[in-house]
Amino acid sequence: MSGIVVAAILGVVMMFVGLISKQSKVVRTVGVFCFAILVGTTFYDAYNIAIANTFSGEPQRFFNDMISVTARGSWFNFLISVCGFIYLLIFNKHIARVGKNDAEYFALMLFIMVGVFMLSTYNHLLILFIGIEVLSIPQYILAGSDKDNIKSNEASLKYFLMGAFSTGILLMGITLIYGAVGSFSIPEIAATFQGEVSALPMVGVMMMVVAFGFKVSAAPMHWWTADVYDGTPTAITPFMATIVKVGAFVGFINLFHSAFGQISQTWQLAIAIIICVTLLIGNVTAVYQQSVKRMLAYSSIAQAGFMLFAVFAINDMAESSIIYYAVSYTLASLGVFAVLIKLKDYTYDGFRGLGKSHPLYAGTATVCLLSLAGIPVTSGFFAKYFILTAAMQQGLWIGIIVFAVLMAAVSVYYYFRVIRAMYFQENDTPVEFETSAGEKFLLVFNAVLVVLLGLFPQIIIGG
Amino acid sequence: MDSGALLVILLLLPIVGAVISFLLKNISAWFVGVAFSAITVLLSLIAYTKLVGGFLLFKAVWISTIGANFNLAYHPVAFLMCLLTGLVFLLSFIFVEAKTIDNPGRFYGLMLLSQAGLLGVFLADDAFLFYTFWELALIPVYFLCSMYGGENRVRASFKFFIYTFIGSLLMLVGIIYIHQQGVTQNFASEIFMATGSSLSALEQKVLFAMFFIAFAIKMPIFPFHTWQPDTYQQSATPVTIILSALMVKMGLFAIMTWLMPVLIEGTAMWKDAVMILSVISIVYASAMALVQTNIKRLVAYSSIAHVGLMCAALFSLSSHGEMYLGGQAVVMQMFNHGINILGLWLLVYVVEKRFGTQDLREMGGIAKVAPVFATALVIISFANISLPLTNAFPAEFMMFTSIFTSGSRFAIGLTIFAGLSIIFGAIYTLRMIQQVAFGPADEKKNAAFNDLTWNETLAISVVVALILVIGFYPNLIFNLFNIAS
Description:
The complex is a heterodimer.
Chain A: H1 2-20, H2 24-53, E1 60-62, E2 67-69, H3 71-98, H4 102-121, H5 125-143, H6 150-181, H7 186-192, H8 199-215, H9 223-231, H10 237-259, H11 264-287, H12 292-312, H13 316-340, H14 354-357, H15 359-373, H16 379-392, H17 398-424, H18 437-455, H19 458-461
Antiparallel strand pairs in A: 1-2
Chain B: H1 5-24, H2 29-49, E1 56-58, E2 61-63, E3 68-69, E4 72-74, H3 76-95, H4 104-123, H5 127-147, H6 153-181, H7 189-197, H8 201-218, H9 227-234, H10 237-259, H11 264-290, H12 295-314, E5 319-320, E6 323-324, H13 325-355, H14 366-369, H15 371-384, H16 392-404, H17 411-437, H18 443-447, H19 454-472, H20 475-482
Antiparallel strand pairs in B: 1-4, 2-3, 5-6
């Protein structure tokens, strides 16, 4: 809970820092420092609840039980803050270069973190709605932060229009649910929805599926993704594609497991179909991309297809696995984007000969790509393993699991295309970019984390 | 020290060697490669002396939440495979001069990593650990194939990678499924096997297919073999050696340890189908080998034929008294085939390097200028067609016996068709000897063909010695199994 408060305050502070100091260096340092504080705060939260849980196992409740912080939710908050911190460490220089208002970019990111924390801890549909909005609105601004670039403007407008629509649908869904239950409280909804339900809430649930499907870029609500991710400045895209997306996922899962868990027959099939379509469209389209940035956008759709299994499977494993998947996917994506942003040419050819000219950058990117592809001893393997195990525990759905692993094999094609370009193809003019010892250290640290989590997943899932 | 820890050392030392090699970058990486492979040979021999009742185990918990363990098991079969792994790496390192290799630090580093992966597959006693190493062995080999070799190597090795990866993923689904059905959800081999054999007939049937495709792609068995000739031809020969002498054995070994004992009923149901596929693979590959003009493709197809025979014998499930005839013969042949194919590839490497071509039609008359080479070629080729008094003969004889007594409806037909492979094998192998060593000579080219150098002779003579010693005294290997019972 203190995470939400501290993140909001830090966001405001960050905005004022922009007024006080015009020096980019000061602003960046404060921005990184703010995220460090956030890591500390969320750790304090998680630690507190872990202590409390040894006695009661009860979540901590705030605001008349509108927010209830579970051990799992606070653990997720901590981990995602760490991811955000790593993101800022790697990308802060690049973010500052996007435009003039660097303090605002950091402030908006802090506000987004408020949204993420709300989504992981809400216990009331109003908080869910506020969380979604706090998560989304700063993103619309961030997408358009490169004001002189028409693609960035397009991304912002497109994202805003589509986002506004999906928010409307979400609101309509909430209304219908309220109409059926007479309450916004998740426990009360869960108590009312047992077994068979009437058409009214069913429509409401479906609207929620659509709205969340939009936020997590699940097909067929994925159309905005590639253009928005591509148009957004490359320094911002990794934040959108990872932290924001997994935040929305955790909100998705919280709602469907705790509020609609007992009426899974009404929505499980829909989710299953969405999973298949998302995996198919994400993977197959990614194969045909020429730009690595667009490929990563489609691959993020494909990864969303896997994460949707955690919504689909209503069990304990699913809820822990999404946290692991979130961290694993975030770290791996950050590692790839960190190299991509260095290049002038975003096509596969731009990566040519990188293995020779910058072995360290190529090496860390390779580890991250292997993780995205789900090769053992990287965290990506366990991410897929846990999520498939969770799906397997649902029983009777082996067909879509086999389909999912075949799609994972397709994903190998485009991830390895980057590896091929880096190591097995020569470049006439070697890629040049400035490097720094600090950055190298961070990239190696990130890659080591990916491998470490791949060897000892219990660091995150416990046990 | 607990002798089980020896297995951990055996497994982890190549990784240490790989790291050292990556850091060295220059030609001294060769010493690291040779030293660490020699240590693998030594340790696998030492570990053999520590077997108690045919087993040496190491147990540790890896991830308790999902019941995955870092369990290693050593038994005569694993011993033979680990020994073979060490020998193949050691001999090919000695044979191939380091100065001909571009970026040796990377090369030997990746080689040692794949060695660790292979050892892990042969030692793992936990389904999850096994899967991990199964995939891990693939990654360095993929990089090696793509970095060293012919001009189409990137495409060919990518095809290889995708093929095997799809197979592995299907197997992963199978492993997760079996794991989920267990009363105690644990991957340790004994629990995994108990769970597997308690499944219903239908489940076993489907799961068998999922596992078998993964292994069939690796071996390869018709119709999953299409990646293999391209990859063998395009990869640099030292890498091809790893693929054909060792990675192929991963498939057979995995069938023996992770398929047949886990899905007993499923194996019985699929027995005939697998044997038929294997025999098709034998006949098809032999026929293809007959018409090849590229020496590497010829050896590649001959390798498919041999593996097909081993797979058929493995699935014959026939026993002779107490003894599982097919199984023993296959284990022995896995070792022998590894040695023979190693020798053959090493000689192919010599031909390729000194002639600068893989085309059989452009070769000839080497016997005159390089007698040592020609002698080795003849002996190793004879071993490849399993002539008596070479190592492959007793095992091949036993394999045919086991197919014949398999009790399958098609046993006689299968034996006859499989037998064709002997005739075909003799034809294409002898034709290869003829075209390479004898026949019309191109004087100019052959003048540049110097005989084997000292390091090449050393490696080849170990191969030839193994062929002859095991050929004369096959009990050397058969006796290994006796301590098990």
